[in-house]
Amino acid sequence: MRGYSLTTRLTALFSLTSACVLLGLGVLIFTAMDRHFAVEDYALLRDNMRLVEKTIADNTGSTLPTRLANAYQHHSGLLVYTRGANGQVHYATPDFDFAAALKTSIEASRKHVGDDDVFQWTQDGKTYRGMRATVNAAGERTDVLLGMDTEIHEHFVHAFRRSLVSYVALAVLASGVFGWWAARRGLAPLRAMATRAKVVTGDKLHERMPVEAVPEEVANLAANLNAMLERLQDDFRRLSEFSSDLAHELRTPLTNLMTQTQVALSQPRDAEKYREILASNAEELQRLSRMVSDMLYLAKMEHGLDLPHKETISIAQEAGALFEFYEALAEDKQVALRLQGDGIVEGDRLMLRRALSNLLSNALRHTPQAGAVVVEAHAEGDSVVVAVENDGPEIPAELLSSLFDRFFRGDKSRRRPESDSVGLGLSITRAIMTAHGGGISVQSANGKTRFVLRFPPRNAQA
Amino acid sequence: MKLLVVEDETKTGEYLRQGLTEAGFIVDLVHSGLDGQHMALNESYDLLILDVMLPDIDGWRILQNIRAAGNPVPVLFLTARDSVADRVKGLELGADDYLVKPFAFSELLARVRTLLRRGAAQAPVDRIQIADLVLDLARRRATRAGRRIVLTGKEFALLELLARRRGEVLPRSLIASQVWDMNFDSDSNVIDVAIRRLRAKIDDDFDDKLIQTVRGMGYVLEAPEDLA
């Protein structure tokens, strides 16, 4: 359900609740009051009934009507009607029609037993309470009927009802206003968060939700949003670094190409010279094109993708194939290639071969003459660990962590690496390991550098 | 051999035509997909080179329509997009090869020749001779001027590749892929070293050098008389 604001809903809810509660209370009070008045009225009637009974008992024969008239004709609130057994009316309050009262009393007496029959009737728009009794005095039966007007209560009840209704209306309004205010206040943290969210843009991703300043119900949401911002900031940073790295790395070769070409064009040269320049340009361009494809490959890896062809791969077999490839280079540098152990992993053959190839190429580049490169694989619990270790100068500890960064080169001053490496090999290897649900680490000590690939258990792979 | 190149990028198209023409092919170049499809269906070609992204109808559609018309001509795709899904789609539709831009022209040329050779029924050869170099493919032996040259398995495979494709400039990536099954951009230093070692065995002691370096492109095996 969308459309009504949270504040509106809460306000309506508050008003409705208070209206229900107050109306219920009103009904309760009215019922109690009505019952109380009835009890009071009947008590009064009963007292008077006693008096009438006493009067009847004390006076017999002809004096009774006079006595009754004397006693009750000035009693304005009380209606009295007595009738002898022979149907003779001893006394009836003048100017009052008792027909309705008698009818109701007879109906009531049919339903009730006992001598204090009480009843209620309506006549000329007024409500009356009545009591009926039969007196046996001096062998004569006399019916007595007493009644009283409840108008005096009605007045009170009317006035009370009026003030109660105004009070309820006022209270509902007040609780509505209060509810609105409470909702506004209660939702203030959300508005604060919205305000904060508004200022978050691409270049202001460091803004965070105020977790400390909001109530605990919202703090969790704020913390989650902050975690999301954290991840976005990280991705964003990587992306912008990626573009600036790329631009930076492209600048140097492009400058070289442009300068070389323009210098070549600035004056006539012989065909051999042109050929020389074009060949050099072609080499530079190939390097550039390889850098672009490596960057794209890395970007694809880092975006996370399913392994295209998953198969079971023997590390020893792959390393063997790679050794054949690097054999000539190794022999040339008089570096020994050694393979120890084996491990079975699951993954994409082309990707894994590329990952290992990067490590081997790297190791060969840094191994001094007569050194050795050792590939060693073994199982460690459920996982498989592959280490590529080479002799060579130690990598300073402070550089180890940035070794896997894009375009990282150990020696910043070296203008051009000795091979056509573009400084993406280790990044690509790490990305491939991540895609396989594994990881890579490096140690460098005692004249040896050791890269360790860790593959997750085979059935638990991503 | 007659080729059709469908490429909407004018400069790329012109360079492809020039390069392929100089490599000895007859080349038709068109810049739109519909023209390409029309030409492919009405003329007879030995190979089509199709750009995937074309302004009117894309390369996939052209291939579908050509195959639907029952034309089995080999097709090589050029694309700037490199995704596994694209590759699979191309191959499912019946493409014969797939090259991602930017590519080296030498790579394209090598692939074109491979595709064209695939079509022609090849008599199984067990002996290749280039000048005084003789390869005995059955016994995996090489001799030059009657002298036995001892080669490792991979050296022989490298020499065999160069010999089978004599006169063709082979890029390093193709050599790495064909000889060592390294189907990615690997350390191309390795190829240079392997070639140098091979040269040491077959060329160093002779005046006529058979293996030539073509700078910026790759390596080629040629008899001196072929060069002239």
TrEMBL record, chain B:
The modification 4-aspartylphosphate is found at D51. Keywords: Cadmium, DNA-binding, Phosphoprotein, Plasmid, Transcription, Transcription regulation, Two-component regulatory system, Zinc. One of its GO terms (biological process) is regulation of DNA-templated transcription. It holds the Pfam family Response_reg. Residues 125-223 bind DNA. It comes from the Bacteria. InterPro entries: CheY-like_superfamily, CusR-like, OmpR/PhoB-type_DNA-bd, Sig_transdc_resp-reg_C-effctor, Sig_transdc_resp-reg_receiver, WalR-like, WH-like_DNA-bd_sf. Residues 2-116 form the Response regulatory domain. GO terms for molecular function: phosphorelay response regulator activity; transcription cis-regulatory region binding. GO terms for cellular component: cytosol; protein-DNA complex. Residues 125-223 form the OmpR/PhoB-type domain. This is DNA-binding response regulator in two-component regulatory system with CopS. It comes from Cupriavidus metallidurans (strain ATCC 43123 / DSM 2839 / NBRC 102507 / CH34) (Ralstonia metallidurans).
